[in-house]
Amino acid sequence: MTDINDKTEWTLIVASLGDHELRAERDRLQNSIQHLKRSNEELEEFVKEDDELQEVIDDNNKVIGNQEMRIQVLKAEITKRGISHSEQQVENNGSKIEEITEDADETAVPTEADEGETVIHL
């Protein structure tokens, strides 16, 4: 996905995305924010020893702010379209269910289901 800092430009891009792409991009950004925040917490421990680390933390915070803006635009478009903020996919035979929700643990790793198994991703 393109790195867009302008809200107006991002809004135009978001309007052209499909429903699945909206939720996938929202989830990707939420995951990225989670990792950046964790990274900042880890860097805070060493910032007194290395002044350059504060610069990294500041840069991460700028990226977090930008990504939060993009998530707001994505959520607004999802709501505007009247689609659910969670995704549920059921294969034709009904044996595999994937569910992704905003409150889900973003570090969960997708797994492949063997035939006949039910898989729920949270």
UniProtKB/TrEMBL annotation:
<feature type="compositionally biased region" description="Polar residues">
    <location>
        <begin position="85"/>
        <end position="95"/>
    </location>
</feature>
<dbReference type="GO" id="GO:0070682">
    <property type="term" value="P:proteasome regulatory particle assembly"/>
</dbReference>
<protein>
    <submittedName>
        <fullName>YALI0B04620p</fullName>
    </submittedName>
</protein>
<feature type="compositionally biased region" description="Acidic residues">
    <location>
        <begin position="100"/>
        <end position="122"/>
    </location>
</feature>
<feature type="region of interest" description="Disordered">
    <location>
        <begin position="84"/>
        <end position="122"/>
    </location>
</feature>
<feature type="coiled-coil region">
    <location>
        <begin position="19"/>
        <end position="56"/>
    </location>
</feature>
<dbReference type="InterPro" id="IPR038966">
    <property type="entry name" value="TMA17"/>
</dbReference>
<keyword id="KW-0175">Coiled coil</keyword>
<dbReference type="GO" id="GO:0030674">
    <property type="term" value="F:protein-macromolecule adaptor activity"/>
</dbReference>
